[in-house]
Design brief:
Length: 449
């Protein structure tokens, strides 16, 4: 019978060396530890601000964070509205949002009570339907029904309101402005659209006005403007030929539509411009704060840093970095690692100690391979966690020690309900996110915690 393994035996030559990244120093966190930040700082954001904007590149957790912040604020007694965009279906369902569109929908208290929470405030959620927001805007600014109908019927409007680059971002801001002005809520949390570049969103108001003032638009409108307001007919005659030629050459049938659309649109233009300026004012205001959401991946972090610089440069209020989906480190990695490698070494020399307990279908070699593979993946997850910690540390160094950086671990399952969101909040608002996330992370929606 093989000798049982002596786990405590740390015979120097026999011990396999741990992988390069692994040193005890790293494990205890020298140089990579995330400092605790003053808790009040992040609390103050939702206590004192009226608008929280969650920005970041696609897929990092903006929608999830927006919903989580909304839940936290409602629990603390705020009347809060989350303006969200494309929430994952399961999250929408579990909040009861499956049926609604552009309406502000209160989340019934029972949804909280079902998971053992009694909110002191109220949470409402609204899904931003960009097309309808745009329509609403036209309704508001069109000088009369004729212009309005003309715009609605226009193919170009259909295209622009649905798909034009930037119109989504602009409409999100519009809605924010409109609801903010009504003062029905203590706090508005704005989720931002899944843009390729997070910055698109900040530049949306300016882009729309730039577009309208741009050379192409001016060129298309020039004949009309030269003929004066009453010259629409002349314009039609005079340019119809040109447009006809262009359409033949380019195969584009839309130029006439474009011109007509822009002409109708000009009547709204002053209203739009004023609005864009007002929205810009809100973004810079004392009542607003930006949460920059990122993953610990290099590309997302670069985007977050870029956004941060842009906020600082344009004097907009930065609130905190939320680093989401962080691989949680294992606190006593080195020790576990050493013990297992000792075990494997002993097993290799003396035979697999548990061989007599294995069912006949599993050979000792098969078992050993399994343990080695498991060890390898343990090592990998350790390395991922270590890289994440280094990335977060880099972010801290970049932003300065005063900046709030919170970390949220990657959960085993999607975050899809109020319970899951409160788990996230343990890390954003509680002690969890101050240092490295705990290795014992319960799956989202699970009951532990
Ligand atoms: N910490 C996390 N752990 C596990 N899954 C997460 C975490 N944060 C977000 N998710 C999931 O990742 C997906 C993308 O998140 P989402 O908030 O929709 O990102 P974004 O709005 O930035 O595109 C969702 O399915 C969400 O449930
Ligand atoms: Mg989203």
């Amino acid at each position: 019978m093989p000798t049982p393994p002596r786990l405590r035996d740390r015979g120097g030559e026999r011990r396999r060396h741990p992988p390069e990244r692994v040193t005890r120093e790293r494990v205890v966190g020298k140089g990579t530890r995330i400092d605790a930040m003053p808790e009040e700082k992040i609390d103050r954001l939702i206590e004192e601000k009226k608008i929280v904007i969650c920005a970041g590149s696609g897929g990092v957790g903006k929608t999830t964070t927006s919903a989580a912040v909304g839940v936290e604020a409602a629990i603390r007694g705020k009347r809060v509205l989350v303006l969200t965009i494309d929430p994952a279906r399961r999250l929408a369902n579990s909040l009861g949002l499956s049926e609604i569109g552009n309406e502000e929908t209160p989340i019934p208290a029972e949804r909280f009570e079902a998971v053992g929470i009694a909110p002191k405030g109220e949470l409402s959620i609204m899904m931003l339907d960009m097309k309808r927001t745009f329509d609403h805007l036209i309704e508001q600014f069109a000088p009369n029904a004729e212009v309005r109908e003309k715009i609605f019927a226009n193919d170009v409007y259909q295209y622009i309101s649905g798909a034009l680059h930037g119109s989504h971002e602009y409409m999100a801001m519009e809605k924010l402005y409109e609801i903010h002005a009504r003062k029905d809520y203590d706090l508005l949390v704005l989720d931002t659209p899944p843009t390729r570049h997070a910055l698109d969103f900040l530049e949306a108001p300016k882009r729309l006005t730039d577009f309208l003032e741009g050379r192409v638009v001016q060129w298309i409108l020039r004949p009309y403007l030269a003929a004066g307001r009453k010259g629409f007919k002349i314009f039609q005659k005079g340019t119809a030929k040109l447009f006809g030629i262009l359409e033949n050459v380019t195969g584009v049938q839309l130029l006439q539509d474009v011109a007509e659309f822009l002409l109708s649109f000009r009547d709204l233009f002053d209203g739009f411009k004023e609005r864009a300026e007002a929205v810009d004012g809100i973004l810079r205001g004392e009542e607003t704060t930006f949460l920059l959401i990122t993953s610990p991946q290099r590309a997302a972090l670069a985007e977050a840093r870029f956004f941060y610089k842009r906020l600082v440069a344009s004097d907009m209020p930065f609130g905190a970095f939320i680093v989401n989906r962080v691989h949680p480190p294992c606190a006593n990695f080195s020790e576990i690692y050493m013990r297992i490698t000792d075990f494997l070494t002993t097993a290799r020399e003396n035979g697999m100690p548990l061989a007599h307990r294995l069912p006949p279908s599993i050979s000792p070699q098969c078992f050993q391979t399994l343990i080695e593979k498991t060890l390898f993946s343990f090592e990998q997850s350790y390395n991922l966690a270590t890289i994440d910690l280094e990335m977060i540390e880099e972010l801290r160094n970049f932003a300065g020690r005063e900046a709030v950086v919170r970390t949220v671990p990657i959960f085993d399952a999607d975050v899809h309900d109020i319970r899951g969101l409160t788990e996230i909040n343990r890390f954003i608002f509680g002690e969890g996110g101050e240092s490295s996330p705990s290795p014992q992370v319960p799956p989202a929606g699970g009951s532990a915690g």
